[in-house]
Design goal:
The protein is of the alpha+beta class. It has 2 domains: 29 residues; 101 residues, Immunoglobulin-like. It has 1 helix and 8 strands. The strands form 2 sheets. It has a 4-stranded antiparallel sheet, with no helix packed on it. The protein has a 4-stranded antiparallel sheet with strand order 5-4-7-8, with no helix packed on it. The longest helix has 28 residues. The chain is elongated. 29% of the residues are buried. About 17% of the residues have low confidence.
Amino acid sequence: MKSKFKKKSRGLIALGGIAVVLASSFAFAAPAYALGSFNVKLTASGCTQGDYYGQSTRYGSGSEWYIRATTSYTNPICLPGNVDGARAIGPSSATSWQYNNTSVVVYLDVGLTYPASGAGQHSVNGGYTRNT
């Protein structure tokens, strides 16, 4: 009985070690470096107040670098709903505006070298434009 327990515990320890190695490789596979962000309350005339959030980061995945722009809004700013917009801007190009309800994330592939600059542009319902 003792030998079965030792074998089982060794197997569990080995599996735990593999899980730690895998988790750490995922944690380091995608570094992100903040470019800018904001979080503000918005209230449009006759509409619901909500949290408007935007962020832009430099994002590495494998050997590629990206500019990532994220926009979200917690409540409809005017019924029937809000449409969040975002676009990512890199050192020499930009994405077109992308839209989605409640949140949107846009990636711009900027190549193999760490981007020296970048930004995000954000909007809710085509207004309240902010840059990060």
